[in-house]
Write a structure and sequence with these properties.
The chain has seven helices and eleven strands. By secondary structure, it is α+β, with helices and mostly antiparallel strands. It has a five-stranded mixed beta sheet with strand order 4-7-8-6-5, covered by helices on one side. Strands 1-2-3-9 form a four-stranded antiparallel beta sheet. It has a two-stranded antiparallel ribbon with strand order 10-11. A hairpin with a 3-residue loop joins strand 5 and strand 6. It starts with a helix and ends with a helix.
Length: 291
């Protein structure tokens, strides 16, 4: 978790640094880097944040009826009768290595294919030599209980005693991104229009900025007169603000969209970047019209 929090702070710091330089630096080739820093660091920081959430919320639970796992939005419930065996990776004589996206020491997520145990899905926080492999009728899971020997002993006891009741098999993964883009045309339209507005504004300003004077209007007083001047690069903050608004509302909307009763709120969030984008376009055109 310390490693993840350090990476998260570095990413957020890089984004803030890019915004500061974008607001203060003069027009140069570095301007592209200052634009890219927040655009790349924010989505990466969200991925790291979600990974940290999964790690903090990770739970294993075992009783006579079955095994339960929760890792972020992923949930796995396996009836005891569907478990073919539980053993350490060493006892199975297999070398397992997760192929996942954005993992780090202490966070082992992903999958691998092994000739002995088949497809293995990882939900662990230790290296391969401390893994416990749960083999089921579907596929296998690699986990890292804190007390490995105690977990194996508890499983053998549960297996000997037999289940008290039959529990359903549950396997849930966060698939709301695919659900939105493949099924809901309205949501897809709102999301696409929301991101197009700041991208088009960025392209428009990028073409105009090079030909602008050293200072351009960047603010008006209550009477409508210009009271603030800034370098032309400051104008690129407008599409940046629109892009960040779209990204934040996109992620928040996905979380709300998971639950059917909250979908109207998700639509409202996805409409917001369109309204913000329209306002930013109006602001940019108004600023450029008085030059």
């Amino acid at each position: 978790m310390i490693f993840g929090f350090v990476v998260l702070l570095l990413l957020l710091g890089a984004g803030v640094f890019g915004l500061i330089m974008l607001a203060t630096d003069s027009i140069s080739v570095w301007m592209v880097l200052w634009v890219l820093l927040p655009l790349l660091s924010l989505p990466l920081s969200m991925i790291v944040g979600y990974r940290l959430y999964g790690l903090i919320a990770a739970r294993y639970y075992l009783d006579r009826d079955g095994f339960f796992l929760k890792w972020g939005s992923a949930i796995e419930q396996i009836p005891i009768t569907a478990i073919k065996g539980v053993d350490t990776a060493e006892a199975l004589s297999v070398e397992l290595k997760a192929r996942g996206v954005l993992t780090w020491p202490g966070l082992v997520l992903g999958e691998c294919e092994d000739e002995t145990v088949g497809r293995v899905e990882f939900f662990a926080s230790t290296s391969a030599d401390r893994l416990v492999v749960i083999q089921t009728t579907a596929h296998s899971f690699a986990i890292s209980p804190q007390d490995r020997e105690g977990f194996l002993s508890a499983f053998n006891s549960a297996l000997r005693m037999g289940p008290l009741e039959t529990i359903p098999a549950i396997s849930e993964r966060p698939q709301f991104v695919q659900m939105v883009f493949d099924v809901d045309r309205v949501a897809r339209l709102l999301i696409v229009v929301g991101v197009l507005l700041p991208l088009l504004l960025l392209g428009y300003l990028g073409l105009r900025v090079a030909g602008l004077p050293p200072e351009v209007p960047f603010g008006f007083d209550p009477e409508g007169f210009i009271d603030t001047f800034a370098s032309p690069g400051r104008l690129l903050l407008l599409p940046m603000i629109g892009g960040l608004c779209w990204l934040i509302d996109l992620v928040a909307g996905f979380w709300l969209y998971i639950y059917k009763k909250n979908r109207p709120l998700a639509y409202i969030l996805w409409v917001t970047p369109i309204l913000v984008g329209g306002l930013l376009w109006g602001a940019a055109l108004q600023l450029l019209s008085v030059i």
